[in-house]
Amino acid sequence: MKPDMSVNLAGIPLRNPVMTASGTFGYGQEFAEYVNLESIGAFVTKGLSLKPRSGNPTPRIVETPGGMLNAIGLQNVGIEAFIAKKVPFLRTVNTPAIANFFGNTVDEYAELARRLDDIPEVAALEVNISCPNVKQGGIVFGTDPDCAATVVKACRAATTKALIVKLSPNVTDVVVMARACEDAGADCLSLINTLTGMAIDLNRRRPVLANITGGFSGPAIKPIALRMVWQVAQAVKVPIIGIGGIMTASDALEFILAGATAIQVGTASFINPGAAQEIAEEMEAWLVANGVADIKSLIGALEV
Amino acid sequence: MKPDMSVNLAGIPLRNPVMTASGTFGYGQEFAEYVNLESIGAFVTKGLSLKPRSGNPTPRIVETPGGMLNAIGLQNVGIEAFIAKKVPFLRTVNTPAIANFFGNTVDEYAELARRLDDIPEVAALEVNISCPNVKQGGIVFGTDPDCAATVVKACRAATTKALIVKLSPNVTDVVVMARACEDAGADCLSLINTLTGMAIDLNRRRPVLANITGGFSGPAIKPIALRMVWQVAQAVKVPIIGIGGIMTASDALEFILAGATAIQVGTASFINPGAAQEIAEEMEAWLVANGVADIKSLIGALEV
Amino acid sequence: MQFTAMILSNAEVSPGYWRMRLTAPQEFASARPGQFVMVRVAGAIDPLLRRPFGIFDVGIHTPAQSGAVAQPYFEMLYRVVGKGTALLATLHETDLLDILGPLGKGFNLGTADEEKLIVGGGVGLAPLYLLARELVQQSTVRLFAGGRTRDDILCITEFERLGVECYTATEDGSLGEQGLVTEALIRRLDALKGRATIYACGPHGMLNAVATIAADRSIPCQVSLEGYMACGVGACLGCVAPGQGHSTETPDFRCVCTDGPVFESGELKWRD
Amino acid sequence: MQFTAMILSNAEVSPGYWRMRLTAPQEFASARPGQFVMVRVAGAIDPLLRRPFGIFDVGIHTPAQSGAVAQPYFEMLYRVVGKGTALLATLHETDLLDILGPLGKGFNLGTADEEKLIVGGGVGLAPLYLLARELVQQSTVRLFAGGRTRDDILCITEFERLGVECYTATEDGSLGEQGLVTEALIRRLDALKGRATIYACGPHGMLNAVATIAADRSIPCQVSLEGYMACGVGACLGCVAPGQGHSTETPDFRCVCTDGPVFESGELKWRD
Ligand SMILES: Cc1cc2nc3c(=O)[nH]c(=O)nc-3n(C[C@H](O)[C@H](O)[C@H](O)COP(=O)(O)OP(=O)(O)OC[C@H]3O[C@@H](n4cnc5c(N)ncnc54)[C@H](O)[C@@H]3O)c2cc1C
Ligand SMILES: Cc1cc2nc3c(=O)[nH]c(=O)nc-3n(C[C@H](O)[C@H](O)[C@H](O)COP(=O)(O)OP(=O)(O)OC[C@H]3O[C@@H](n4cnc5c(N)ncnc54)[C@H](O)[C@@H]3O)c2cc1C
Ligand SMILES: Cc1cc2nc3c(=O)[nH]c(=O)nc-3n(C[C@H](O)[C@H](O)[C@H](O)COP(=O)(O)O)c2cc1C
Ligand SMILES: Cc1cc2nc3c(=O)[nH]c(=O)nc-3n(C[C@H](O)[C@H](O)[C@H](O)COP(=O)(O)O)c2cc1C
Ligand code: FES
Ligand code: FES
Fold it and tell me: Which of A296, B242, C26, C204 is a plausible cystine mate for B260, CB 3.0–4.6 Å?
């Protein structure tokens, strides 16, 4: 019997829990040749800002043991070009598209939430709070609970769509951040964003990345992501999206056991562009092989 | 010409910058068959407590992509057995032995510092502040700057030996912690200790480790460690020991470029018990091949 | 000792079970039954940690070409269960492997005038063959080999060739008796006239059962344990097993890698 | 397109440079000169990311055994510089590789009535052979190949066999002229009567020099760029190169993987 793979993510029904992570799946279309977009639960688009952003100089990417660093610098087309050039494609796909976005000020965050709220093709909003707060001299919104709550409240007031808040792992206590965002009105939490890392080119005696530091992702970070998802799942009521180093169906199911309602595939899509679809298919096969009728029965089912 | 590999670590002359990390090299003797202890700069013994500690149930170890988790639970023989059974060996080796230790209360920390101060075979003290503060309901000493400063001050008052403070990476801002420890009297900072991670056994639907979470080490964590060493090196005046995922001479030299005066080899000794000696030899060979006369000229020499 | 070994042969001896022969330095010839090696399966980071394997046999390899010098070899018997063992199974003659060993404390061979009862479950037979080879030189040796199916009963012919009397039992009855091998062991113990020592290696449940059987009859029993190992040399404290008197107040953890892997069953704490 | 290719051959053609031939699906036969593939070097995590390589040649492979069906193949010419390429060099006939491609935009072949001047530095020759093969069908083609030593001058015989006139220069003078290959290019341009197009691939410094030479003489010039790539399909934005009008205020980054790797040199911003 076909198992029930569907989950409900803060009011958005997903055919299965497999999503793709922002910044690793373009605007969806880039992967249409490799993934049947209607075989996955949802996809998240590259982080949007109000104005187009040019991002950092190159090199922007370097491989590390079991992972990679990126310092793209949030290059994106901006909300206007998104509406003009990317949204028409979203309309053609019968799968929820989730818009990831970020601002430099609370007002920018709110303004973006408002603009995205108007776009019927956008099923939900994922707010990336891992950005420096230019007003507060560069403190990252996502590492201070009050800053984060302010951003989330502002976005909450600006949209009636489901609001997913994406948490940074670069904090002492992710649970404090999670609670602050939940209390401020988040419908769902996604974690983790990248860790901050660095690579050095010994022979050139320089950082490898032009930006010096970069965001660390890939299989290497999975133990940290899994720990944080499990911690947050104990502490909040809203659904959680697990992200970080997911390469296989087994990885994905581990996050679900830890308490995630859905998961996002990030770096894995670079290594295998068909990863998201394969993971969804193999999760279903695992459910069949293990006699699990409904994937929802696995959410948070870890025995400790 | 033979390059000068010696460095001075807060008053302790080391023949070269290669040390071994606490908990990965036993009490020195375990590796005597594989490493000529007089070919490395110093070695750090397993973390000591006042009373012997039994540690956690098993499984205590699991491999993850490019790394490992451990939840040994600080099992150790206790300070008394250390003096009786381990110190005699230290006397036979002409290489500085550094004692790593931890307590559950500030008083325990201070008491240990006092006891270790009396042992002439102990060249310096490395205080592990990544332990939960039992009085403050489990807050980890090493994740709160005030807690950390209190511990460091208490140890500082209890010993005249060089005091190395080992920083936890599980914090929002490692620089804040580093400054607090420097101001409280640390002679040297070592970083990073393990990150907190978790692994799940899908088929058993249980955490792999009996302790649920564990300390994450190995090549996978190198980008995070390198970033933190570089950040701290910009902010403090005391020397820094770089730790985290060092497997090769190139890794070690990258940490030195980032600002470390010495480095510690941890997990690598499990994979290759001769790792520390080989790294020291290959670092020297690299200096020769690249015409660097003195390793000290590389400390913090990263061009950014 | 750390050395680079060359693979002399690597073959599947039963579905999922492989036997590998590797060159070793002269000093390796003195490896004791029950000792083990830590194998670095890949040169890079995947898999990262070494994998422990018992020493199945040691011997002298005389290369075919004239003038070549004889050299010790050792063998491992391994089961493919995950990434590391799957990789081992892809290796070929002349490939090289980084080996640490022989490590740990082996079996105590005891005295000649007693019957030796060897109990092995599945790949737990691995360290028992070298043991049997030494024991048959002075005592009567009986082997009790158990497994889930006939595929898990390994290298019985080799044991028989040593003159060991072999009893086999499988859970599905596909080879030997149907049921647990401990039943045959009990029957033998009931029929026993003189003294005996039990040697066991296999899944924890089997060892627990054997230890209980031995304790009930006051028969000396040595068991070879497994444990998740990182270092193999007593440094990481990952592999520990609780000793007989262990409790949180009176901690008594033993290192499987250096205090064992072989223990007197009475030294250990068994869950009941 | 993502497919599993079987290695047909893999041989070192010059010290440190290898040429690999792999099977490909039918659709691959339409790959254009200048396109590239992303190769998954290992199945697991080390190395993690795919590695990009130009398409050196495509053709039809007819297996020797009777009844076997002819199948497209493609070739890569690669230099061993790190972990991934070192691993590639250990692979053998019949080993399998996961390939993504052909990817990116190739060279524009231009018109027949102009001279085609191809400039390649070291392994930069890789995507230029397939280009030359197509260009010789209608135009005069000259190749300017440069490198540090004679070992870096690759596959010149293959180019000559196409009827391409080859000029070589090495920095140490061990093959051809001593010096930079751009000098020979300039001499040819000075002697040029009719129209010409330049095609270049190689180290960034060489491309910069060629672009300047072309711009000074208003000769159309296409360059094939490299960039550190994670995805190869325009999603990660890792591989970008600044376009001609790029500045922080008016950002204009082009994706090397999808907008390139071949660009008109005038489209790009060159550092001076
Ligand atoms: C002293 C000792 C002797 C052993 N002798 C043999 C032998 O002769 N033949 C044999 O087939 N097996 C033996 N084992 C077990 C063998 O070490 C594991 O099967 C092997 O390490 C699995 O590696 P893997 O990468 O294939 O599996 P993984 O994918 O890593 O894991 C599969 C399972 O194997 C276990 N395992 C993995 N790594 C280790 C490790 N480092 N230490 C212990 N268990 C581990 C885990 O519990 C896991 O559930 C022995 C183990 C020990 C401790
Ligand atoms: C479009 C394109 C086509 C290429 N065609 C060829 C070719 O035909 N033949 C050839 O030999 N080489 C080619 N390269 C370069 C080739 O991709 C790198 O040499 C290779 O990826 C190095 O891998 P490695 O693991 O051996 O080296 P690593 O140890 O990873 O790194 C060695 C050096 O190679 C560079 N490099 C590593 N990974 C990448 C990557 N993913 N993208 C770009 N550069 C990287 C880095 O700058 C590094 O300094 C091409 C690159 C691009 C972008
Ligand atoms: C190249 C790249 C670009 C990314 N861009 C974004 C982004 O724009 N917004 C965002 O919230 N996360 C971004 N991320 C983070 C991922 O969405 C994801 O949280 C992270 O990579 C961890 O998952 P992984 O280990 O599966 O890749 C990016 C990651 C990578 C590798
Ligand atoms: C098994 C194990 C035990 C450890 N025990 C201690 C300890 O007792 N005290 C301490 O300060 N750090 C301890 N550490 C942390 C290491 O000293 C080191 O900081 C960490 O492993 C990162 O370095 P690596 O990646 O090179 O292993 C331990 C690490 C491991 C793997
Ligand atoms: S394996 Fe490290 S102590 Fe036993
Ligand atoms: S390689 Fe990812 S965008 Fe070009």
Answer: B242
CA closest to B248 among chain C residues: C44
A216 at interface of D, judged by CB pairs closer than 8 A: no
B223 in contact with chain D, both atoms CB, cutoff 8 A: no
From ligand 3's centre to the CA of A68, what distance in Å? 11
ipTM: 0.96
Domain that holds residue A92: 7-55+74-199+217-298
User: Which protein residue's CA is at the shortest distance from atom 18 of ligand 3?
Assistant: A193
- Strand (E) positions, B132-204? 162-166, 188-191, 195-198, 200-201
Which positions in chain D touch A63 (Cβ < 8 Å)? 47-49
Find how far residue A212's CA is from the centre of its chain: 23
Query: Taking CB atoms and an 8 Å limit, are D240 and A62 in contact across chains?
Result: no
Of C103, C127, C146, the position where a domain reaches its end is C103
* Cβ atoms within 10 Å, residue A285: 12
Report whether B268 contacts B31 (CB < 8 A). no
Is residue B288 over pLDDT 70?
yes
In sequence order, what are the residues at sequence separation of 6 or more whose Cβ sits closer than 8 angstroms to the Cβ of residue D120? D128, D143, D144, D145, D146, D200, D201, D202
- Asked if B206's CB is within 8 angstroms of A65's CB, the reply is no
Q: Do the Cβ atoms of A30 and D235 come within 8 Å?
A: yes
* Cβ contacts of A218 on chain C, cutoff 8 Å: none
Q: Report whether pLDDT(A236) > 80.
A: yes
Q: pLDDT by residue (tens digit) across D219-243?
A: 999 999 999 999 999 999 999 999 9
> Residues of B with CB below 8 A from D46's CB?
66
Q: Which ligand is nearest to the CA of C52?
A: 1
A63 lies in some domain: no
b/e for A208-227, b at 16 or more Cβ within 10 A?
A: bbebbbbbbbbbbbbbbbbb
Count the neighbouring beta carbons within 10 Å of the beta carbon of residue C199.
29
Contact B218 C252 (CB under 8 A): no
User: What is the residue whose two structure tokens read 């055919």?
Assistant: A15
Cα(D164)–Cα(D121) distance, rounded to whole angstroms?
16
Cα angle: A298, vertex A300, A303; to 5 degrees: 90
Let me know how long chain B is.
304
Question: What is the whole-number distance in angstroms between the Cα of residue D51 and the centre of ligand 6?
Answer: 12
C49, B26: Cβ pair inside 8 Å? no
Residues D125 and D257 in one domain: yes
- Is C218 exposed, middle or buried, given 0-12, 13-18 or 19+ CB atoms closer than 10 A? exposed
Same domain, C47 and C158: no
CATH code, domain with C62: 2.40.30.10
pLDDT digits (tens, 9 = 90+) for B277-287: 999 999 999 99
DSSP letter at D49? S
Check if C155 has its Cβ closer than 6 Å to any atom of ligand 1: no
- State yes or no: pLDDT of D272 exceeds 60: no
> What per-residue confidence (pLDDT) applies to D22?
97
- Is D109 a domain residue? no
Asked if D46 has any chain B CB less than 8 Å from its own CB, the reply is: yes
Residues A171, A176, A179, A183, CA torsion sign: negative
**What is the whole-number distance in angstroms between the Cα of residue C48 and the centre of ligand 3?**
26
Residues D99 and D121 occupy one common structural domain: no
Per DSSP bridges, beta strands C177-178 and C165-170 are parallel
Model pTM score = 0.96
Q: Note the pLDDT tens digit of each residue in A162-184.
A: 999 999 999 999 999 999 999 99
Residues B1-25: tens digit of each pLDDT: 799 999 999 999 999 999 999 999 9
Give per-residue pLDDT as tens, A117-132: 999 999 999 999 987 7
Q: Among all residues of A, which ones are annotated catalytic?
A: 131
Residues C130, C252 share a domain: yes
For A67, which residue in chain C has the nearest alpha carbon?
C45
**CA D256 to CA D268: how far, in whole Å?**
11
